[in-house]
Amino acid sequence: MSELASRYRENHARLLAARQQLQQAVDAGTATAHDRKRLETVTELLTPVKGTDVDANGNVIEVERPRQFLSVDPLGQGRAVEVHGDLEQAQNVAVLVPGMGNSLETFRGQSDRADLIRTEAGPGTATIAWLDYDSPQGFVEAASKQAALDGGPRLATFLTDLRELTDATTTLVGHSYGTDVVGQALLNGGRADRVVLTGSPGITKYVDEAADFVQLPTRLYVERAPGDYVSYSEWHGPDPATFPDAIRMATNGDEAVSVHWHNEYYRVNSEALRNIGRVVRGDLASITTTGTTRSQETKLAWGTVLNKAAGVAHKVYDGLAPPSVDRAPHPTGRATARPTGAPRPRTTEGPRR
């Protein structure tokens, strides 16, 4: 049995044990509401996924595949790392890091999102939904960087371990607060071949260009949709969509599926998802880009209100975040070259393309 198959089997057994323990509590009448909900969740995680395949005669058939977990923790808030596709044979692998408001109960949605990326990237791709950190459960928690500071090193270690399981080209995809976790992973020695950030609240206050945390030849690809109040707020630092050395990908094209606000980057048939797929499979010449500014994006009826809301959110972050959270030294020592929170002068919001 391969190491990968052994890990899948081990975590399947862990879920079986958790289900048995939770069921015993339910049968004994000692289960809490959380226990009952967790029992439903664990049962769902153990349910095989239905899909289609092609048989030896070229016929499309329906198949069931067991879910593949590299790690799972059914206790507390819950954590899980799930693989979609054949990791051993994959040529390209994408690791999706979700943002705030996630737990084992919401993991299926993130798992489905990872599978959408796999489908969009096409044959030879495997994806991994990585929820191995304590996702902030509300705006007050998300205003703090602590979850990212804790989760970043874990992600960095995972990326190192992943190199032992596959030699595929790896793309790290972070959404929302997950982009902060990605940033901390890279600052803590994590490595990926490509990095994609969607709807980012910023990495940290001294990071205002990709070179501050992404080592060449790795390139940074960023998406900011019109009306994304999280990106506009810059809670954790300068918006990566403004970094001069990032590739700012378009989220909308000529297709009927439009992408706005904060949670639509992974809509099927959207230009946002198509561009993510292009990065993952290495079709970099087909990426579409944009240089729209925040003011251009908010020239809608709700634009003024939205900008005010973003300003309030930024002030809330400044008031809630611990004073020292953004003062960790840069690995190269560059953070000491300028005051914390003092970005380099820039004349345009769009990337230099």
Describe the SSE topology.
Layout: H1 3-28, H2 33-45, E1 49-54, E2 60-65, E3 68-73, E4 79-84, E5 92-97, H3 107-121, E6 125-131, H4 139-143, H5 146-165, E7 169-175, H6 177-187, E8 194-198, E9 219-223, H7 229-233, E10 247-248, H8 271-281, H9 294-297, H10 303-320
Parallel strand pairs: 5-6, 5-7, 7-8, 8-9, 9-10
Antiparallel strand pairs: 1-2, 3-4, 4-6
The strand order across the widest sheet is 3-4-6-5-7-8-9-10
Oligomer: single chain
Order of helices and strands: HHEEEEEHEHHEHEEHEHHH
Estimated share of beta-strand residues? 15-25%
- Report the radius of gyration as a whole number of Å: 21 Å
Number of strands: 10
CA-CA gap between termini: 48 Å
Kindly name the structural category.
alpha/beta
Main beta-sheet annotation: 8 strands, mixed
Q: Mean pLDDT score, rounded?
A: 85
Shape type:
globular
Q: Please, how many helices? A: 10
Low-confidence stretches: 312-353
Percent helix, as a range, is 25-40%
